[in-house]
Amino acid sequence: MSRKPAGATRVAVIGAGSWGTTFGKILADGGTSVTMWARRPEPADDIRLRHRNSDYLPGVTLPENLTAESDLAAAVRGASQIYVSVPSQTLRDNLVALKPLIGPDTIVISLMKGVEKGTGLRMSQVLEEGLGIDPSRIAVASGPNLALEIAKEQPTAAVISSSNLETAQAVALLARNRYFRTFVNTDVIGTEFGGVLKNLIAVAIGIVDGVGYGENTKASIITRGLVEMTDFAVAHGAKAETLSGLAGLGDLIATCQSPLSRNNTAGRLLGQGYSFNAVVKQMQQTAEGLASVAPILELARTIGVDMPIVEQVEQVLNGTLNPKDIAPHLTTDSDEPQGERTNDEPQADGGSSLWRPFQRALHQLRHGGRGSGGN
């Protein structure tokens, strides 16, 4: 295993929710000096004075080398790396205050799993635009990362991705300890979309769980959901193998099966008959999957990718599909036999597995060559 750089290392984490605080703990337990930024003084005081974050991680004691500030400038001063963990739809606004505080060599890491409404941009792209920094200084962290389990030091793994391998490695050297291991890759697109898309499938799983369907139904949706995730990500330039790794399949399994998952919980409430607005009111934390359904489907339609499971989740959210009717359709309303893999799909003209990407290319040409919203 590579050794961490010599000398004191100081980092900042923007956002003191459950995942931001947990990642701060990960870094601190690995020997790094960590300063959290909390929007309100109360959680900052709780972290700094009592080494707790009672609102989000009850019962968890935080390390002595983790502190917090409610003043953003004080929190990020001198940080070599800044980890950002705020709700995806508030990111751009938060970057206005952060931009003048970023040093010329500071690495910025996204801990978020969402896409921006209106633009369809991934979080790393919003960081690039909002901060005006080169992508080589941006990384993303993803994987099967249920915050409370990790905060309780249950072993897990994650992946750090950056277009610059050295950047990914520099982050991975700090973001690891005896219970948390990190791997690296350079497929930022696949890593980010894996983290986004699994939330949507987790909402679907929650819905059928709330309705009362069993393990066969859920296993079918998870499996076919991974196909939708892979098709979508690959169409946007990702590597298929990334979706079979920690940021795809690993995160999908954890998020779909755990009651700790906010997206699973939100789906379960929908399946029990609560309206979208009622679910939002009941959720104490942001379920990113609910906010990502519309922008993901817009991107999918633009590039010509079918996502029938996510389409049905949207209909449930809109109140146009009864939750109990989501499962019988599974992934298609067609009565025609279909191949399990997209390249197994029968073609009327006897075409090969190259036909689907060719269709996507034609679709993009018809829409002025636009696909991934600024990729």
Automatic annotation (TrEMBL):
Binding site for NAD(+): 15-20, 147, 262
Residues reported in the UniProt entry to bind sn-glycerol 3-phosphate: 113, 143, 198, 251, 261-263
InterPro entries in the cross-refs: 6-PGluconate_DH-like_C_sf (IPR008927), 6PGD_dom2 (IPR013328), G3P_DH_NAD-dep (IPR006168), G3P_DH_NAD-dep_C (IPR006109), G3P_DH_NAD-dep_N (IPR011128), NAD(P)-bd_dom_sf (IPR036291)
Main location: cytoplasm
Protein keywords: Cytoplasm, Lipid biosynthesis, Lipid metabolism, NAD, NADP, Nucleotide-binding, Oxidoreductase, Phospholipid biosynthesis, Phospholipid metabolism
Binding residues for NADPH: 18-19, 39-40, 56, 113, 147, 262, 288
Gene3D superfamilies (alphabetical): N-(1-d-carboxylethyl)-l-norvaline Dehydrogenase, domain 2 (1.10.1040.10), NAD(P)-binding Rossmann-like Domain (3.40.50.720)
Catalytic residues (positions): 198
Coiled coil regions, renumbered to chain: none
Pathway: Membrane lipid metabolism; glycerophospholipid metabolism
Family stated for the protein in its record: Belongs to the NAD-dependent glycerol-3-phosphate dehydrogenase family.
Entry function: Catalyzes the reduction of the glycolytic intermediate dihydroxyacetone phosphate (DHAP) to sn-glycerol 3-phosphate (G3P), the key precursor for phospholipid synthesis.
Record protein name field: Glycerol-3-phosphate dehydrogenase [NAD(P)+]
